[in-house]
Request: fold
Amino acid sequence: MIKTIINPFGRLPMRQAMCWGIAAMILTAIFCWQTGLRATSLTQINYAGGSLAEAALQQVVVWLLFAVVLYLGGVIFSKSKVRFWDVAAYNLFARIPFDVMLLMFAVPMVRSVMGLMTDGSMATAMEYSTVLSIVGLVATLFAVWYFYWSYQAFAAATNLRNGRGVGVFAVSFVLCYLLSGFVLIYV
Reply:
């Protein structure tokens, strides 16, 4: 049971991963729309808000951009046959920890403190240091979970593991992080 939670991609069928991932993406788009969150890159959000269509499009863009770059990396560097939908489905499922992490913005105290932090004031940061520390710790734990699952999903879908797999995944992530920042400006 614990092994399945740590790395579900060895036993998770592609269709099931896609269904769970799509459900999570839809719920995340609705949540972002309702709370005024906006994706600004692969792993960044802000309080710019927008319509439900914009929130949904941002989720789709972030997912597809990362899936395409991971797929291309897998096709180029893997000796195995790599199928796009395997990479896309597993990548979408691996994004669930990041989506769950966003739920902390449903807590009114977190929302108000993070809203106050937009001015960048050090006095505000010191006043709410406990809340910011808890938010930082939760975000770090979920980010590690997201990165770990994303790599495991990539490794399972492309059969790229160890040094080569980590290298291709890391380069793909950095490339998508930078590209998504530019693409999401227009969404």
Q: What stands out?
A: The chain has a mean pLDDT of 92. The chain has one domain: 12-186. Residues 12-186 form one domain. The radius of gyration is 17 Å.
